[in-house]
Amino acid sequence: MRATPMPELVERAAAQPSALDAAEVLAAPGPVKVIAEVKRKSPSKGELAGIPDPAALAAAYEAGGASVISVLTEQRRFGGSLADLDAVRERVSIPLLRKDFVVTEYQVLEARAHGADVVLLIVAALPGNQLRDLFQQVLDLGMTALVEVHDETEALRAADLGARVIGVNARNLKTLEVDPSVFGRVAAHLPDTAVKVAESGITGPGDVAGYVADGARAVLVGETLVKQSSPAAAVGWLRGLSAQEAV
After folding, report:
1. What pairing do the DSSP bridges indicate for beta strands 33-38 and 68-72?
2. Is 129 labeled as catalytic in the residue annotation?
3. DSSP, residue by residue, 6-34
4. Which residue, 143, 145, 156, 197, has fewest beta-carbon neighbours within 10 Å?
5. Pairwise CA distance, residues 181 & 190, whole Å
6. pTM over 0.85
7. Domain range for 178
8. Total domain count for the chain?
9. Shortest CA distance to 182 belongs to which of 195, 173, 169, 192?
10. Residue 14 domain-assigned (yes or no)
């Protein structure tokens, strides 16, 4: 697909309503927050779900009590697209995360132009000043950065940025194996002022409870949710709520 010229992206981004403050939403009092993901496939598990109507899935997540919707826009490995982001933006009123391998200013601007409120920045993929420059661009556009780390060294880089939302991914990017103990070990190096998000390895409320005990304020869940017959109920289930409480 042909790339949108930069001047057009700038205009589209400027025309968007102000971005929603996802950090404030995730830090709010109450049960653990769920960032629910629209995810068709993954490098580790292959095909997960067809998801012919991503907007309907996102609406179900919102109805179930999700605080943020994560939309994969990477096509080759995850089967996502910017069209998915557009469709979801039209359907839900809660913050949207563009989840992709974001490494350029163009991609950050593109996220805002398509209605994203949050952009994923993976510390391991952004050496030197590249991380700080993209982080600043995200802030300048009024968005929130979800800064993802995998170890203690990366955690210190994220903390040095002053990131308000920091995700700890328990999945090893090289082996794709998940080690839930990574979260607690790495989260201990993050400031208490940051919202700590646990990523990967979440199959049920027990996993969520373990992460919360180690300091997680939110969890990002994709695979487990897209496989459920009732995504709305599954969001409440992960939060440890009864069906009545989840509505």
Report:
1. parallel
2. no
3. HHHHHHHHHHSPPPP-HHHHHHSSSSPEE
4. 156
5. 15
6. yes
7. 33-240
8. 1
9. 169
10. no
39 is catalytic: yes
Interval 7-36 mean pLDDT: 96
Catalytic residue among 99, 110, 196, 223, which? 99
**Residue 43: other Cβ atoms inside 10 A:** 11
Please say if 24 is a catalytic residue: no
Q: Of 37, 62, 110, 223, which is the active-site residue?
A: 37
Q: Is 200 part of the annotated catalytic residue set?
A: yes
Residue 148 among the catalytic residues? yes
Q: Looking at the domain assignment, is residue 5 inside a domain? A: no
Least Cα distance to 182 among 163, 165, 168 occurs for 168
Residue 67 lies in a domain: yes
Distances (CA, A) of 238 to 31, 178, 225: 10, 19, 9
Per the residue annotation, which of 62, 110, 169, 223 is the catalytic one? 169
Dihedral in degrees, nearest 10, Cα atoms 183, 163, 120, 46: 0
Q: What is the mean pLDDT of residues 65-86?
A: 92
User: Three-state SS for 39?
Assistant: coil
pLDDT band with cut points at 50, 70 and 90 for residue 52: confident
Among this protein's residues, is 33 annotated catalytic? no
Average pLDDT of span 123-144: 97
Structure tokens at 90: 């039209």
Catalytic residue among 62, 110, 148, 154, which? 148
Residue among 110, 154, 199, 223 flagged as catalytic: 199
Q: Is residue 7 part of a domain?
A: no
State whether residue 103 is helix, strand or coil: coil
> Residue 217 sits in a domain of what CATH number?
3.20.20.70
